[in-house]
């Protein structure tokens, strides 16, 4: 069984999709490392793939670790390096 | 509520921040305003566009305030608001305030909120330069994967 997960884009990632989101197909129990590989396959730009290496995946509640399971039904975002203020 | 956090697409109010950070037993209040600067890395800046993740941002802001409250006292009051959207040079992008019985806790807690916000809150800025170019500012990575 696989599922479709939509990843919301923020910051510098926004320039790579006019919809500010990229959908990937994942196995039901996929972890974040699997999500990262699936997301990388969707990127055509070398700069985007480089940015992905220093970016984190998160739900609305918390940043996810590489070994965490991608939660079913949660909104997932990709967060490039941050710089508020 | 002694903790107030928000993200806004309108002008931030320092008066509201100081009104919130006030109590009969508080002899000190510290106010920090972050503003858009006209020069960065040698380039003339005309404006900055702030992008943020509103829900996660508010969660992180609240978490940071709770950490400061645990460190410097339960009675402290906290205010943390950040702008989103395009801001011109001189406009306030962030307003942070803390009040406490004595000045030392306010100074320390306010500094803590500023530094933690910059390193942990999901906020991004795109600088717009006088020469017409725009660039996303490099920041602090939130991930620690190999």
From TrEMBL, chain A:
Gene3D superfamilies: 3.10.20.30. It comes from the Bacteria. It holds the Pfam family ThiS. InterPro entries: Beta-grasp_dom_sf, Mopterin_synth/thiamin_S_b, ThiS/MoaD-like. This is MoaD/ThiS family protein.
From TrEMBL, chain B:
It comes from Natronospira elongata. Belongs to the MoaE family. This is Molybdopterin synthase catalytic subunit. GO terms for biological process: Mo-molybdopterin cofactor biosynthetic process. GO terms for molecular function: molybdopterin synthase activity. Its EC number is 2.8.1.12. It comes from the Bacteria. Pathway: Cofactor biosynthesis; molybdopterin biosynthesis. The keyword Cytoplasm does not apply. Keywords: Molybdenum cofactor biosynthesis.
């Amino acid at each position: 069984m696989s599922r479709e997960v939509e990843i919301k884009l923020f910051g510098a990632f926004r320039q790579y999709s006019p919809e500010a989101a990229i959908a990937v197909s994942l196995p039901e129990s996929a972890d974040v490392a699997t999500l990262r590989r699936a997301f990388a396959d969707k990127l055509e730009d070398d700069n985007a793939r480089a940015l992905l290496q220093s970016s984190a995946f998160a739900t609305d509640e918390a940043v996810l670790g590489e070994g965490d399971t991608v939660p079913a039904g949660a909104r997932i975002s990709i967060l490039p390096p941050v710089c508020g203020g | 509520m002694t903790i107030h956090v928000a993200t806004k697409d309108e002008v931030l109010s320092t008066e509201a921040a100081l009104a919130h950070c006030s109590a009969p037993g508080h002899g000190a209040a510290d106010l920090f305003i972050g503003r858009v600067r006209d020069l960065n890395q040698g380039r003339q800046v005309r404006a900055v566009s702030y992008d943020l993740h509103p829900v996660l941002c508010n969660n992180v802001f609240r978490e940071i305030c709770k950490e400061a409250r645990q460190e410097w006292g339960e009675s402290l009051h906290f205010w943390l608001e950040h702008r989103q959207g395009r801001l011109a040079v001189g406009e306030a992008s962030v307003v942070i305030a803390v009040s406490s019985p004595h000045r030392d806790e306010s100074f320390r807690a306010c500094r803590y909120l500023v530094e933690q916000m910059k390193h942990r809150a999901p906020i991004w800025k795109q600088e717009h330069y006088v020469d017409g170019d725009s660039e996303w500012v490099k920041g602090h990575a939130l991930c620690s994967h190999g």
